[in-house]
Specification:
It is built from six helices and no strands. Helix content is 76%, strand content 0%. Helix 5 runs antiparallel to helix 6 (104-121).
C-alpha cells in the first residue's frame, strides 16, 4: 500500500473517530432524552444547533470523501479492516478526554486490533 493510500485511509478513520467523540460531547451538553414524537422538534433543534454536533457532521462528510478516494486506490478487503483503528482511537480518546474507563479487556482488544491491522496492511 502506498503512503498516499495509507494516509487517505488513516485520515478518513481519524475523522470518523473524531466525529464520534464530538457527537458524544454534543449529546452530553444536551443531556439524556426520551425518544418520542414529542421530542423530535425540540431535541432535534438542540442537537442541530450544538456546535460540536455540527462539527461532527462536517468531520463525517469529509471522512466519506477521503474514504471514497482511498477506495479508488486500495482493495476494499484491505481498506475496510483499517476501520477498526477507529475503535482504538475512540477507546483511548474517550478514556483521556471523556473519562471513560480503560480496563484490561479493552487494552487486550486494542492490542489485537493493532496486530490485525498490521497483518492486513501488509497483504
Amino acid at each position: 500500500m502506498s503512503l498516499v493510500s495509507f494516509t487517505l485511509i488513516l485520515a478518513g478513520v481519524l475523522l470518523n473517530a473524531v466525529a464520534q467523540l464530538l457527537m458524544k460531547a454534543g449529546t452530553q451538553v444536551v443531556g439524556a432524552f426520551a425518544f418520542s414524537a414529542a421530542n423530535i422538534v425540540p431535541i432535534g433543534w438542540k442537537l442541530l444547533t450544538q456546535p460540536t454536533i455540527l462539527t461532527a457532521l462536517g468531520c463525517y462528510g469529509l471522512s466519506v470523501v477521503l474514504w471514497i478516494l482511498a477506495l479508488s486506490r486500495v482493495p476494499v478487503s484491505i481498506a475496510y479492516p483499517m476501520l477498526s483503528l477507529g475503535y482504538v482511537v475512540n477507546a483511548l480518546a474517550a478514556w483521556w478526554w471523556l473519562g471513560e474507563p480503560l480496563n484490561p479487556t479493552k487494552i487486550a482488544g486494542i492490542s489485537l486490533i493493532l496486530i490485525g491491522v498490521g497483518v492486513v496492511s501488509r497483504a
